[in-house]
Every structure is written in C-alpha cells, then in structure tokens.
Amino acid sequence: MKLLFSIFWKQKLKEAPELYEDASSLGKNQIIDVPCKIAISDGAGTTAFAGTWAKILVNTFSASDEEFEPEFFLQKTWKCWRDKSELYLRERILMGRPLNFWERPNFEKGPYATFLGVIFEKNADNQNVSELDNSIIWIAYAVGDSCLFQIRENNLFCCFPLNRSDVFNSFPELLPGKENATKKPWELFTMCKGDLQHGDILYLLTDAIAKWFLKMYENGNKPWAILKTFDNTNKDDFDRWIEAMKNDHVIEDDDITIVSIEYE
Amino acid sequence: MPYNERITRARPGCIIVLIDQSGSMGGAFGGDSRFKKCDIVADSTNKLLNTLLTDCQRFSEETSEETNKSEIRHYFDVGVIGYGGSTGIGPAFTTPQLQGRDLIPITEIADNAGFEQRQRSIPDGVGGLVHENIEYPFWFKAVAEKDTPMCATLQKTREILNNWISRHSESFPPIVINITDGELTDGSVRDMTNKGDEIKALSTNDGNVLLFNVHISSSNVHGILFPKSAHEIPPDEYSQALFEISSPLTDFMIDKAKRTSENFHALTQGCKGCGFNADFEQFVNFLNIGSSTKIEGRN
User: Which residues of chain A have pLDDT under 70?
Assistant: First the structure.
C-alpha cells in the first residue's frame, strides 16, 4: 500500500527561506509504503531556536521504530536539544562571544513548538479480510494548533485537533524544549484515529493556513479544491497565492506548511 | 477590527513611559520605608526595557560562517520621559549615547546599557539562600525633585507621537504608560483631561493611541487595577479624571493578564488600563500587561 506525500511551504513575507520556523519530516514529494510516519511542527518564533526544536520533534517522531509514548518521546527530544544547546554555548565561548545579558533569558527559557504527528499502519483488525481490503489506519498525536483534515468523497470527513476557526488564538499549547521538574508536557498530547480509504486525502496544516481552511469551510466553500490545484509544476503559483492572501490580510503573515497525503 | 496589527520590523511599535520625578516620589512605596517610590519605578522601568529587549531578541538558525549571530530586531521605538526633577520635562535616559533623545530604536537600547553590581538571593536547594553578584543593566536612574508638570508632559508626548505616527501610519498604535504618585501642579484636572484626550485622539490605521495611567501610593492600602467602571475607584476628582483619560485594554492584553495571574480572571472587554494605589506586585503586573503586544512569529 502506497501513499503519495506532497509538501508546500512558504516562509513569512520579507523573510529569507532559512528563517522559516515550521518543520516537516517530509523533505520533498514522495511515494512511501505503509507503515510510515510523518510529522509537522510550528516553532514559536519568539523563543530561541524554535525552528531547530521543530525539526528535532518531527525528525525524532518519524525516525523512531518504537510505539509512540509521549513521555518517552519528549525525553528523547529533550536530550537532543540539550546536546545542541550545549554545543552552541561552547562554540560561542570559543568564538570569544559568550551570551549577552539580552540573550540569556531567551536561551535559558528554551524553545517551544506545536506538534502534529501521524502514524499510518495497515488495517490489521478488519474482520472482513479479503485480498481487496486495502484500508489503512491512521493515528494522529497533536499538541497545539497544527491541524489534520481528512477529505472523503469531496466532503470534510474529520478535523483534528481543532474544528472551528474561532478557536485559534495567540496562546496555543506548545511543547517546551527544556524539561521542567514541575510540569508534565506529555499530558498535553491529544490523540485521534481514523481509516484511510482509496480516494481519501489527508491535509496536515500549520495554524495560519489551517484557520483559513476552516473559515472557508464554515462559509460553505471547499478549500481542498483550491489546495488540489497546486502540484510540482506550479510552485510559483502557490507562492503568489500565499503572498496575495497575506497582503490582503486573508491569512496571517506566518510560516505556511501544507502536507497532503493521498491514498490513490 | 482595531488593535489587530502585529508588531513587525516593517511596522514597528512605539512605547513611551512617562515618569513622575517630583519630590514626593522620594517617599516610601506602599508604606514600606525600606523602598522609595522613585527607586521602585526606576528599577521596574529598567526591567521593562530589559523585557522588551528579550522580546525583540532572536537567535540565528543559520549555519554559515556567520553562524551563532543573534540580533535585536527593531520591533519598537521606546521613550522614557521624566517630569519634575531638576530638568523639568525631558528624556530620562542617563546612559551617554541615549541622553537627550525622545524616542530610541530598541536596537540601540541593547548596546547602551549601564551596569551596576547587585546581589541576588536564590534558593540553595536545602532550605537556605545563596547570594550571588549579578550585573544589573540600567538605562536611567531614579530622580525625586520638585513639582509635577503633567500637563506640559502630556503636551510634549503628543508632539512626539504626532511625529512618530506620521512615519508609521500602518503600525499598531503607540502605547503611553504614565506613572505618577500624586496630583499635577501645572494645571487643573480639566486641563489634564483635555491633554489626555488630545493624546488619545491620535491614531494609526490600526486604532487610537493607548494611554494608560498608574497611580502608586505611599500608604499601605488596597490597590485597584484595570477597573471597568468609575464606581470601582476613589471618588475624588483627580482619580476619576485619570480613569476617564485611560484607554481600555486590548483583547490581547486581557488574554495576557488572565495568563499572568488568577487575580485577572474576571477581566473583560472595557476594562481600562489604569491602576490606583498600586502596590509593588500590582505595579509590575501593570507595566508588563500594559506593554504587551502581538509580535510577529508565534508568541
């Protein structure tokens, strides 16, 4: 069973692409066999090295062969961040540039990011076993406002973790890059399961474009029809479309990440 | 919808703090003779500037040869205007590069801090305290002399803002935080109200200038923060006028307040950015909440 993964992304207006602070475990469009995993994350830009932290989250999730367990997952990612941050401090000292007083608070606070990870498995529990049974199970884990939308037969079939445009705000839940003895951020994860049938499409969207998606749907539109018009051949059209929406204040000027997963 | 613009480098914000530097500011803060009002205000305002620096600071994620650079982004122009004191009304910055300047890009604040050694006490993990020396950044020092020319200060502030707004019409509107411990000496309460209204009448395309007023007390009385109705505050003419000229908090500030403390869980739209007889904790909360804005990137 194969899934077609496609990714579109765009950084904030007037920012260089290197300053894009979302992350996806999918580097480029590809076809992948099931079982497989994918994740996206939206780094909180006001925190230190948010983009690096977002990459640690998505790469640790997709590279792991173990069953997903939130606390264990975070312990692994925290170790990764600890190693990177200690290396960064050593390099700054070697360069003769220890942290300034105005850098220290953000560095000590550490990075924060949302997370949305999806595991795809063959449906082993279906009692109607037959050669033609090709359904796939998906299991999604989320913290924050990066969203999953499932389209089936040209209808919005599932939304997770948010299902209304008016619930997006400036203070979503975020995963911290540093362990804190008094807090249990693994309790922030929510989970959702579903099945994927031939013809279904899943979209994984970071908040600005997710909010747009829901608002369009609430107004009686089918936003997936717009997203489907973009492919490998018209990335420039996608860039222009996003820029126009930002300039017209239809969406926030934020990093944009769209991953689509099609089961053909 | 007003007050919706994010602070960005293309559309920076503006924060001006007006500080009463009259003689009475040398009195005890909140009835505690260990602390002078002028010292608390200076420390808290220096800390506010430090917090703004942190909000504007970004580490680079680039891994080129220029790696490990971090920057302060020009998200704000900031000003601290003192009134009273030996110079009357004017910029209160005391560090050399900043003296005499009404508004300064936050990028220059970072490079022009003065430092003094202070001691900080932190828990030692076994029930005691350990004292450590820290370098405390400051940009101006406490002053407490002479009168309270608040009308003239509001007038000058209006001129500064008019100039700034003409160059930043698309930005989130300026925030003015006025800190005082008593009544003005250069006009009537009516005059003060008129000057305050003139400031609030200024606007960018995103809304009117936000004028917030906080009164700090010499006595140990219960303070009131962010009232919604004039009935919640002292009935004297001066307090009522401070309430009238204070702008409502923005939705973002109300959200921030609720996340700061349980004490603010009942805040609603219409609650004003003013405080009366604020104690130390209330005063610090007032500064943090009254200066909070949405900066580009997730907050």
Answer: 125-134
pLDDT of residue A132: 47
CB contact under 8 A, B298 and A44: yes
Q: For the segment B185-228, what is each residue's pLDDT rounded down to a tens digit?
A: 899 999 999 999 999 999 999 999 999 999 988 877 778 999 99
Residue type at B152?
A: A
Q: How far apart are the first and last CA of chain B?
A: 20
Q: What is the ipTM of this complex?
A: 0.83
Q: How confident is the model at residue B249 (pLDDT cuts 50, 70, 90)?
A: very high
Please tell me if residue B70 touches chain A, with a CB cutoff of 8 Å: yes
The residue to which tokens 């307090």 are assigned: B239
Establish if B296 belongs to a structural domain.
no
Interface test with A, best of B254, B258, B298, B299 (most A CBs within 10 A): B298
Q: Of the candidates A18, A51, A88, which has its C-beta nearest B68's C-beta?
A: A88
- Number of domains observed in the structure of chain B: 1
Could you list the residue range(s) of the whole structural domain that residue B85 is in? 13-290
The shortest C-alpha distance from B267 to chain A (Å) reads 17
Q: Is B12 on the interface with A (CB under 8 A)?
A: no
Instruction: Classify domain A2-262 at the CATH superfamily level.
Output: PPM-type phosphatase domain (3.60.40.10)
Residue B295 touches partner A, C-beta closer than 8 Å? yes
Q: What residues of chain B, 237 to 256, have a C-beta less than 8 Å from chain A?
A: 252, 255
Backbone angles phi, psi at B225, to 5 degrees: -125, 140
Tell me if B4 is assigned to some domain: no
- d(CA B20, CA B53) in angstroms, rounded, equals 24
Report the distance separating Cα B254 and Cα B273, nearest Å: 10
Domain membership of residue B2 (yes or no) is no
pLDDT score, position B123 = 66
Ordered by start, the domain boundaries in chain A are 2-262
CATH assignment of the domain containing B66: 3.40.50.410
pTM listed for this prediction: 0.87
CA distances from B174 to A55, A118, A129, A155, B100 (A): 36, 44, 66, 46, 20
Closest residue on chain A to B137 (Cα): A101
The answer to whether residue B126 scores a pLDDT higher than 80 is: no
In a domain, B203, yes or no: yes
Instruction: Name the minimum distance, in Å, from the CA of B207 to any CA of chain A.
Output: 16
Q: Name chain A contacts of B135, Cβ cutoff 8 Å.
A: 101
Please determine, for residue B282, whether its predicted confidence score (pLDDT) is greater than 70: yes
> What element of type H or E holds A202?
strand A201-205
